[in-house]
């Protein structure tokens, strides 16, 4: 059965039929839905300062919109966004009040981007969530007979000078009535109590979610987190904490490190299964103390049918590790979304990771596509030549441009997508990559300029040793959990009797970390989702060998540039075979919730 099979006699429940019919209706009428969405947005926001600035004069048709409204990036909008953050309540982007800012993991000038949003957007996001399980139910039967162990987390919210909340989109969603007071749905029963999910202390939240997941291990039918890196972090947490968890289960008590009163009360007084269970504790102890953790997920949670995590884009690097821990369970990446807008879903969730495509739902926003030139000259495409959702061509790559109900107009998201086919008249896209991202472990996204700045700052520490960095490249090492950035350095030590000390090279690691953006520093300092940065000093001449290797494989000697990030195995092997010494950041980089600007 697949999404086209809506015959209720095939076991599809009435609620699911409605959701699947909605998907059919939207995708059959992709272009007309898009036309209507744009018209609605332009009517809703007709009296905004932004449209006034470009003399849109109440027009609601695509042609006028495209001819008058420019394609923009976050940096173009930043002055207006700052006004809103500082308390300007005039209708700059939207005639509906800005309800809060969603903080994106993308950064601008080293700080998280602030995305203004309106209350209605929550309904649109909830609608997209409501489509996920009906699709999944077509492929995996019986998910209503058990629970989901989903590691879901919130972060601390900040306030802008004007008093608006600024927080990640999922923190906003989990704190909303839409999530907290959701009606009972047998397909969406989580093992984690809401009190545990809403704890901002990530240790206490992870501990209590893991504890509840272990108590209910037989009931768990799917295990997940938002991104693959999050699920692996949970497995690492279990490796480090299983003795404490087993002790709690054996005795029916709760580790005193869990101090939050509401979650203590919930775990100890409200959950009937929290009571001494020595048999389960012994089982967990036996499994976790085995020397190999291969297949640990299915050993502890034997009824798991799939891992509910996103494994496309930067997360693809985690697929082998997930396979190792789960014995190769299916990895359906169910949706594609961002702080700016939720885009779409995967209609064939059981497909192989390399075949995952997302169908953008035409009701979510007005979507346009900038033809993507891998050589990087896409910016020159005239705004009038952006392609509409229904008109993209299979096999071509595009950058996503969105116009949202919240008031982003022709906004470049920064994602590069490739069209793989169509579902009815709606195109399906493979996520290719995020533009300009060199390194990523978790939600961090580090670009070439940021890395270069980090190298420049660290190099200053070498000047007293009359030493300079001749060449460098980088690598996101995800073999350990959490993963970490590795920087390969070739040095020119002018006075061999006074080379940089081990301690100074360690400090160089920290200097690079201090120069990276706030999402990276938060992940290091607060989230423990990235391990200390490492510098590997390589022998002199290594980068020349790297060039020789590239030329032997057909690179042009005139055009050769040192790749600033590597992940091709022979190159990694070459670099690693030339390593003279390794150095790690000795401390956590600085992070505060106060924005620099
Ligand atoms: P944020 O604004 O922090 O929520 O991050 C949104 C970005 O995460 C998107 O623009 C994508 O680059 C990335 N992303 C979200 N969903 C997926 C997915 N299913 N596959 C690959 N990348 C994704």
Question: Could you characterize what this model shows?
Answer:
- This protein folds into three domains: 20-118 and 364-434, no CATH class; 141-304, no CATH class; 438-584.
- The chain has 597 residues and is an alpha+beta fold.
- The protein is 36% helix and 20% strand.
- The strands form four sheets. Strands 8-9-10-15-14-13-11-12 form an eight-stranded antiparallel beta sheet.
- The protein starts with 13 loop residues before the first helix and ends in a 13-residue tail after the last strand.
- The chain is globular and about 75 Å long.
- The chain has 20 helices and 19 strands.
- It binds adenosine monophosphate.
- Adenosine monophosphate (AMP) is lined by residues 104-106, 169, 310, 312-313, 333, 336-339, 413, 415, 431, 434, 443.
Strand order of the largest sheet: 8-9-10-15-14-13-11-12
What count of helical segments does DSSP give? 20
Q: What fraction of the residues are assigned to beta strands by DSSP? A: 15-25%
**Which spans have pLDDT < 50 for at least 5 consecutive residues?**
none
Measure the end-to-end span. 53 Å
How would you characterize the largest beta sheet? Answer: 8 strands, antiparallel
